[in-house]
Amino acid sequence: MSVESLLITYGYPLLFVGVLLEGETFLILAAYLAHRGYLNQTGIIAIGALATFLMVQALFHAGHRYGPRVLARRPKWEPRINRVQQLLHRYGAGLVVGFRFLFGLRTIIPLTVGMVHYPVLRFTVLNAVGALLWTAIIVVAGNSIAQLIETLVEDLRQHEWLIVVLLAVAGAIYGIFHLYKQPKLTSEPLPTRE
Prior knowledge:
Radius of gyration: 19 Å
Number of strands: 0
Strand content: under 5%
Oligomer: single chain
Number of helices: 8
């Protein structure tokens, strides 16, 4: 079986699992592979949006159902939860649509939004919009990176697996860095506009 047929056969299922685990890395890598003709950009956006939508929806429902019990067992989380509640009160739908762009808050925000019993249908619609928007932006950025790489390297086919590995390693380092450098949430009130 050739490398191309492996990518065509298993590329989308791997993308789905990869987006569940570490979104941007796999989306950028998939965009590069689409640029090279192995995957379809529309398929990448569809699979990526579906994966992130389902993950966030599961977190929302977990917060909705189990949040108060978890918070009762982990009172140290209360300042973070309060901070997210303040952000939700201040930004509302904008936070639900755009939180995927906030590193370190992608798990806590949908959990918290579920805990405060945000309307399920409203969250679902905003989650779908946010998933499509976030996925499309990341894939377009990945495609731009692929085009930049192609202009820098004369014969990309000789080096494409090295580039795939380097992008995967860079993405993993980036993800690990942001995992350990998450912003610290405080329970201090947000500054008000005057």
